[in-house]
Design goal:
The chain has a five-stranded antiparallel β-sheet with strand order 1-2-9-4-7, with no helix packed on it. It contains seven helices and 13 strands. It is an alpha+beta fold. The chain has two domains: 149 residues, Jelly Rolls, CATH 2.60.120; 79 residues, Orthogonal Bundle (Arc Repressor Mutant, subunit A), CATH 1.10.10.10. The longest helix is centred in the middle third of the chain and has 25 residues. The protein is globular and about 55 Å long. Strand 10 and strand 11 form a beta hairpin. Helix content is 36%, strand content 25%.
Length: 239
């Protein structure tokens, strides 16, 4: 399941010095944490862990993006959220779970550190701010997923797709000449799984927005040309 390569170079403490769970620590403490970590490089599309599997490790994403996927009772795949670099993931222990609540798949080539799950209580007890900052992250993600649930229940498809694109450029966007590009490969199928609609509907909507000059899409790439116009589309619709 894990097709990963271990980077050979010794990691420097500066990698974690500005990451919230470790930002209150001094150099020797960060060195202690790094010495217990296993660095891995994952190719794009690699399953790091699967929903329901024993949560034997927790992770810090150093570079790349993680796509968090849930499987519905009907067996359909739903993309719950995307995690950018500089964040912990696979932190089932923070939720009081011993299995992973979702599947993590790399959305681009990624590098991550991981630690044995048994170290979680030690990290929480020993390192100042680790627990506080981690639970802030958990709260933010739960809030985002709750927002998604409300969108699915109350918004039209056009609004949901616009919100999904705005969320992605806010989290992972990079400025390019024409606008803001989502900084990892994303397909129309991915968008359909994020917004609870069909591939046909997403394709039709993006094609219409391309004709209006709002977005530009190519092979696994989407650039938002007019973010403000997408914001207007997310507002309430006249009845």
């Amino acid at each position: 399941m894990r097709h990963a390569k271990r980077p050979q170079t010794r990691l420097d403490e500066s990698l974690l010095s500005h990451v919230p769970p470790f930002s209150r620590l001094d150099g020797p403490q960060i060195r202690e944490i790094l010495d217990q970590a296993s660095p891995r490089r994952f190719e794009s599309g690699t399953t790091v862990f699967e929903e329901g599997a024993p949560a034997d490790r927790f992770y810090m994403l150093l570079d790349g993006y993680i796509r968090v996927v849930r499987i519905t009772p009907e067996g359909e795949q739903v993309i719950a959220l995307h995690i950018p670099s500089g964040q912990l993931f696979g932190i089932a222990q923070a939720l009081g779970r011993d299995t992973y609540p979702a599947t993590a798949i790399t959305a681009a080539e990624s590098i991550a550190l991981s630690w044995p799950g048994r170290l979680w209580p030690e990290f929480v007890a020993k390192y100042d701010g680790f627990a506080t900052e981690t639970y802030k992250t958990v709260g933010t993600r739960i809030g985002e997923m709750n927002t998604r649930i409300v969108e699915m229940a109350t918004q039209q498809v056009e609004q949901r797709i616009a919100n999904a694109l705005l969320r992605l450029i806010n989290q992972t966007g990079r400025k390019v000449a024409k606008g803001i590009e989502i900084d990892f490969p994303i397909t129309r199928q991915d968008l359909s799984e994020m917004t609870g609609t069909t591939l046909h509907t997403v394709s039709r909507m993006l094609s219409a927005w391309e004709k209006q000059g709002l977005v530009e899409s190519g092979r696994k790439r989407i650039t938002v040309l007019e973010p403000h116009q997408l914001v207007l589309l997310t507002g309430p619709k006249a009845t």
